What we know:
Elements: H1 2-8, H2 34-46, E1 52-57, E2 62-63, H3 67-77, E3 85-88, E4 94-95, E5 102-106, H4 108-111, H5 115-138, E6 148-150, H6 161-171, E7 175-176, H7 195-200, H8 205-215, E8 221-224, H9 231-242, E9 246-251, H10 260-264, H11 279-291, E10 298-302, H12 307-315, E11 322-325, E12 337-343, E13 346-347, E14 362-363
Parallel strand pairs: 6-7, 6-11, 8-9, 9-10, 10-11
Antiparallel strand pairs: 1-5, 1-12, 2-4, 3-5, 3-14, 12-13
Amino acid sequence: MKEIERKLNGEISRLTNDTFKFDERVGEGWFSAVYFLKTKRIAEEYLQDNIVTMQFFQKDHAVLCGTDEAIAILHTFADHPEKLEIHSLKDGDKISPYESVLTITGPYQYFGYLEGIIDGILARRTSVATNVYTVVKAARVSGRQKPIIFMGDRDDHFTQQAGDGYAAFIGGSTAQATHAMNEWWGKKGMGTMPHALLQMFQGDVVAATKAYHEQYPEDELMALVDYNNDVITDSLRVAHEFGDTLKGVRVDTSRTLVDKYFLRNQHKMGTFDPRGVNAELIFALRRALDEEGYHHVKIVASGGFTEDRIREFEERKVPVDMYGVGGSLLKINIGFTGDNVLLNGKGEAKEGRRYRPNPRLEKVDPSEG
């Protein structure tokens, strides 16, 4: 938790311009709303001496992310970025509704066309970071922090992985599924085996796990045990085969299936939903492993987990040691707004908006990046 708290308090170094691989067409206005481009042209022709302050905010309690990327966009594509005055909070800062997180002061024509791009960066990164933070928070309800694996590779376009992985890291996820998700902060992806590996071994979990271990002996051995929809039987099979070498089992049962354990023990059903990775299945798996002396084998649960579902598991003290979470972390539910609020040092904004000075903002060195 200390590392997560450190990130959330903004005590991490800013990413540099070199971290990002921007499309050069940003500078041509290709990704900017056309009316921003037209306004840039008008300002160049009629209002060359204007100095505006643009301020960015959102309307929720959130974990901020995307400021480094937004600043890098400005340093890379604004005209005369060295003449802009930028003040910003840091990635990982907790923010409040309507709090100013970023201000930019300078001639509108230098940077105004980037407004929508910056809004979008902050919206996506902050949404993912906040989603992950709430899940991480739910995963410590039972008294100790359970790690969260960010498994969002299949839930969105692959080009989003680097930024989403970084946002998940800011939110407190300790592992990401792909190398790309780790690119911005210098780590590598984490993963063991998919169902495809078990399929090629015709569902023989022992044979598949043996092949994996022989090929990747340096990895902690983690077996996927739901392929045959009989997680207790297959968990014990790999535990008997690998003993102390087996570090964990991952349960990823489809939400439409009832594990064979319940079909063999139908008297246990009737008071709960037996489909998917449910609490009773995990309790039974833990008991079975412990009764055979495999107390050291950890249980990883994945498949459709959300903040509410994890909190429910934790409140019931379901013996999950780690959660794999994907799609629920990628919902974009926080939107940012950029407003021009000062003109030549004086208040000038659309009705209902005003300059909101924030003493927490830090001035960005023009040479950063």
